[in-house]
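Example record

One chain of 138 residues, shown exactly as stored in the release files.
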Amino acid sequence: MTKSLSALIALSAALTACAPVDEEAPGASTAAASEGRDCFFPRSVTGYRDAPDAENGAEQIYVDVGARDTYLFETFGGCPELDFSWRIGLRDRGIGQICRGIDVDLVIPDPAFGTRTCPVRMIRKLRDGEEGSRSARD
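Predicted structure tokens for this chain:
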């Protein structure tokens, strides 16, 4: 499914610009790295693609970050319109970086309700060669 990259970037930038930004605490990046988490900034998102739904029925999408990284996002339960949306937004929850599901919500335009917010339960960086990663598509 082809997605409108420019619309995604514009929506992500608009949502990020409106979100409150806290100053990063000293050593925050070091703490995330020491816990084995991979973090990224919403402005680094370059695209997204549909992913197969989880076994528990939760919606999933692949989010491309930078030149080569791909993350798998899983929502809490169903998220209507996610499979069909030509654009999505990421609403971070104040720290600026996205490291865990609790750090971000997906914002999806909904023709019936305007905008729908889908909380993210889990984020996982895909390894090279793993299904859904960019290297697996090459």
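Notes: The beta strands are 45-50, 60-65, 69-75, 89-92, 104-110, 114-125.
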